[in-house]
Amino acid sequence: MRQDIKNFDFDGNELTAGGGVLMSELLDFAVSEKLSGLEWAGGLPGTFGGAVCDNAGAFQGEIKDSVTEVLSLDIETGKLKRRKNSECGFDYRKSIFKTSPSREIILEAKLRLFPGVRSEIEEKINEKILYRKVKHPIDYPNIGSIFKNVALSLYPMLDISPFSKVIKTDPFPIIPTAYLVSEAGLKGVSCGGAMISPKHSNFIVNVLDARADDVQNLIELIKSEVFKKFKIKLEEEVLISP
User: Least packed by Cβ within 10 Å: which of 30, 47, 96, 242?
Assistant: First the structure.
């Protein structure tokens, strides 16, 4: 195994990255080593450890599809824990690191990636970055998608005809939460310094020194109004500390 750059190890078979590595750095490294499998994450903000904790995903890809092993630190006991993919409880935008009552810090994780053509990998990543620049309100501070998209499997009795034009696979059939929030008439609604983005209504943006309470009030408003209109219960993707 050779040390390529800080926080990375790559032995030609598996890539090990530190939990604090930015996703943008991870993708840059994948491009430099001609490694394919993470193109879906182009433009994904935050750290690699955060992506593993949340099982981040987009464009029909998820981080769990590449992770083979995770090393974490239990901050209550001080013990290290090493888990294989099957032991991480990966599910739609969640993992054992997000749902377990014990608090763990992801120190590093191993990824199984595949040889590819550098120009093709880079092109696909840049496509995703451009999409996010066009569709997402990245010109304002925000914490990313507030709610999970709505899995159709959770609502087997739902009349899906009103949603037929917006249902997509991500990575299974879902109704985009942004559509529900928009149809509930909440685009541009603000509370204090926080606002439901007119550009992408599953984002709450900080437009004027927003406080945590401003964001939480908007979250509760969205959940209430979407349920009132569609009888659908939204589930937060973000974690709110007590």
Answer: 242
* Type of residue at 133: K
145 in active site:
yes
- Mean of the per-residue pLDDT values of the chain: 93
Q: How far, in Å, are 20, 53, 71, 184 from residue 108 at the CA level?
A: 8, 11, 5, 41
220 classed as catalytic: no
Q: What backbone phi and psi angles, to 5 degrees, belong to 206?
A: -90, 105
Q: Determine whether 33 is an active site residue.
A: no
From the list 93, 108, 122, 197, the catalytic residue is 93
Catalytic residue, from 62, 108, 225, 237: name it.
Answer: 237
pLDDT digits (tens, 9 = 90+) for 63-118: 999 999 999 999 889 999 999 999 999 999 999 999 887 789 999 999 999 999 99
DSSP character at residue 16: E
